[in-house]
From TrEMBL:
GO terms for cellular component: apoplast. Its EC number is 1.10.3.2. It comes from Arabidopsis lyrata subsp. lyrata. This is Laccase. NCBIfam families: laccase (TIGR03389). The lineage of its organism: Eukaryota, Viridiplantae, Streptophyta, Embryophyta, Tracheophyta. Pfam families: Cu-oxidase, Cu-oxidase_2, Cu-oxidase_3. InterPro entries: Cu-oxidase-like_N (IPR011707), Cu-oxidase_2nd (IPR001117), Cu-oxidase_C (IPR011706), Cu-oxidase_fam (IPR045087), Cu_oxidase_CS (IPR033138), Cu_oxidase_Cu_BS (IPR002355), Cupredoxin (IPR008972), CuRO_1_LCC (IPR034288).
Amino acid sequence: MTDSAAPCLFRLSFFLFTLQVMNVGRVSATTRFYQFKVQTIRLTRLCQTNEIVTVNGKFPGPAISAQEDDRIVVKVINMTPYNTTIHWHGIKQKLSCWYDGPSYITQCPIQSGQSFTYNFKVAQQKGTFLWHAHFSWLRATVYGPLIVYPKASVPYPFKKPFNEHTILLGEYWLKNVVELEQHVLESGGPPPPADAFTINGQPGPNYNCSSKDVYEIQIVPRKTYLLRLINAGINMETFFTIANHRLTIVEVDGEYTKPYTTERVMLVPGQTMNILVTADQAVGRYSMAMGPYESAKNVEFQNTSAIANFQYIGALPNSVTVPAKLPIFNDNIAVKTVMDGLRSLNAVDVPRNIDAHLFITIGINVNKCNSENPNNKCQGPRKGRLAASMNNISFVEPKISILEAYYKQLEGYFTLDFPTTPEKAYDFVNGAPNDIANDTQAANGTRAIVFEYGSRIQIIFQNTGTLTTENHPIHLHGHSFYVIGYGTGNYDQQTAQFNLEDPPYMNTIGVPVGGWAAIRFVANNPGLWLLHCHFDIHQTWGMSTMFIVKNGKKVQESLPHPPADLPKC
């Protein structure tokens, strides 16, 4: 080989190596295709056989799995008599707002006999998420896990577990949940509690006719397992524990956390949590238990625990199950203790200079009832009608896709005047003065607030006591946020303490009972995004609003055109 040929060969080799690396980069992101047939099946639970809505005939629904940066394509075919949509809870939908899924917000529902294909990328996201219906209360049975694994070359920030299991915590009703929601709305009163809690669709032996309806995990002694916990319930926050075992939290809402070890955890509806559990006890059978966290007063709720088995391989068939001990139903200290332990894995870049400060009250209202049939229509407190609100505005669900109306600049369907501070001022936690007509009545409206692209936002959520205080799970679509602070009582800027170094990065936050929570995020995802309480009954009553993030200056900062098969109202 001549001296002049060597550099040429080196350059060719380097070029081929670079091309190979580029090709590996291209193929590392895969497109995952799924088909969801939304259909009814007959299911027997709690001594009764009922018709429920499912995906692909499964309850809970099928798992979706992908790797970070993969594209997910799901064709949803609606074979039921009900409208439906699917929301991909926790997926930010960067530049894909059209596929977010909340009905009448980013799309019209998929009507009976129609289909719609969701097409989105899980860009720079990994962890445990969930998908669920976002129409009426269908997500009581239409839900499943969405697991995004790290790229093949990226390890976990903890020792790789021996195995993993996904655990879906749910609520089950014997009644048709669409009809149930309609009945609750018509009555003006509170909803009935679920007939059972479930762990992966099974209620466990504490319920009638359920001694064999028990979910079970087979465990190898001395091995460590990753449990992906998902609260898919619709109206209840829940505790979870495993008898005689410690739980180490390593991820919440698809974001790694500093390891935090505890005996029990609490998940709000829509929240996900990854925990490590080591099988370090004597060979036997241990209970996994799910029970209620009910912080509101004078509320009827399901108080029977769902039980599953955490069974060591080698345990005798007649082994006595070691019972799990759950906190009492209103143990606020247990909830706060877990929240206090959540920290981002590393130091994070929390916005310091804030462009928009919002103060949003959240609470339950009692509206006047002017019905000519008060016995059937006025079943709320003081013969009123129950409602819910943010800043005393009770959200009115439109009958058109608000995102489509915004994109096409259609007028008259919503307004841009959502107040950034409450429209009424009073002692939030201790409630308003005595005049119910003035102090617990909410205004109605379909309102939004607009942010410039890249705005740095701070929101103070303040729990109110107009009727009762309770822990409200607030979920923001399209973004995650840093939970920089929280506390009891009324928020006081002078005494509030913020963590700006390593706060947890979440998409659903339980605003403490009778207290407040502070979040910060950057509005860098153009589109229209729902902010709402993840109790379905509170969303039904109006505890929602919308954020509009305007386009940025670049093409990659702009909302794309709507998909051609977007459903019509």
